[in-house]
From TrEMBL:
Keywords: Transcription, Transcription regulation. It comes from Nocardia jiangxiensis. The lineage of its organism: Bacteria, Bacillati, Actinomycetota, Actinomycetes, Mycobacteriales. PANTHER family: ARAC-FAMILY TRANSCRIPTIONAL REGULATOR (PTHR43130), HTH-TYPE TRANSCRIPTIONAL REGULATOR RV1931C (PTHR43130:SF3). This is GlxA family transcriptional regulator. InterPro entries: Class_I_gatase-like (IPR029062), DJ-1/PfpI (IPR002818), Homeodomain-like_sf (IPR009057), HTH_AraC (IPR018060), INH-QAR (IPR052158). SMART domains: HTH_ARAC. Residues 209-307 form the HTH araC/xylS-type domain. It holds the Pfam family DJ-1_PfpI. It comes from the Bacteria.
Amino acid sequence: MGVHRVAVLALDGVTPLDLSIPAQIFSARSETPYEMTLCALTPTVRTSVGFTVAAAGGPAQVRAADTVIVPGCEPPGRPPEAAIEMLAQVRDQGKRMVSICTGAFTLAAAGILDGLRATTHWQYIDDFEQDFPAVRVERDVLYVDEGEVLSSAGVCCGIDLCLHIVRRDLGAVTANRIARGVVAAPHREGGQAQYVPAPVPVAGETSLSDTRGWALQRLGEPLTLRLLARHAGVSQRTLMRRFAEETGTTPLQWLLNARLGRARELLETTDHPIDHIARDCGLGTAANLRLHFRRALGTTPTTYRRTFTR
């Protein structure tokens, strides 16, 4: 992958956290090809909390970018016509378009999301669906990947989406390295629920993070609900409830995602045979690994290795 220009377009009222996520993930690193520029229609932009930020680039840099990312604004509203026209032109040029949180309102206003699946912050999703009936709204997801148009749900889900983009571009090893640098979860599948009803333990309960860490060290072993529940010291029913509360997904789906992530790292960093990788990451056989790879990534382990092996 050659030099890849990323333009982060900040509009008036931009949410600071939405803005900082892509700026951090796509900042210049020796192991990545990204050149990130903070862009705006004016030299400075007022954020949703009152302070202003200075933009290093303008419309010219947005039009020259390979990927354009639009962070959310609060409250979401109709973007300036100049922004709408510019984004529509950029999309017509085949550039990759990304929204974070309520930035989906801006992409939708430019017609970029028409006929596509998209998501936004759960608090605004009813308004989004009403305002843009041509968009196929996904409510209970962290992010949506429609190829060259991607959108994330509320605020911190932008981290998941940006890491997903890095993973698509450069592979799991690089994405995980960046995730460790920003102290973020290396990989959360886009299909998880964005609204977790109990993100912290209630009184008298403890987090399952220790159990998840224990499982990650044993992905090559048979791991059942019974074993996970025994390690956590809870019943299987309580394990499933608490797992959904803390992660937005089920224990078995979480395990599958973790095993696929491990398989991707092994494919990128070793020359081990496919059947050995399937065994080492807990998927059993090469055929089973191929099946899940095809379902999750739309490709084969061999093609993935050829794409991301350095």
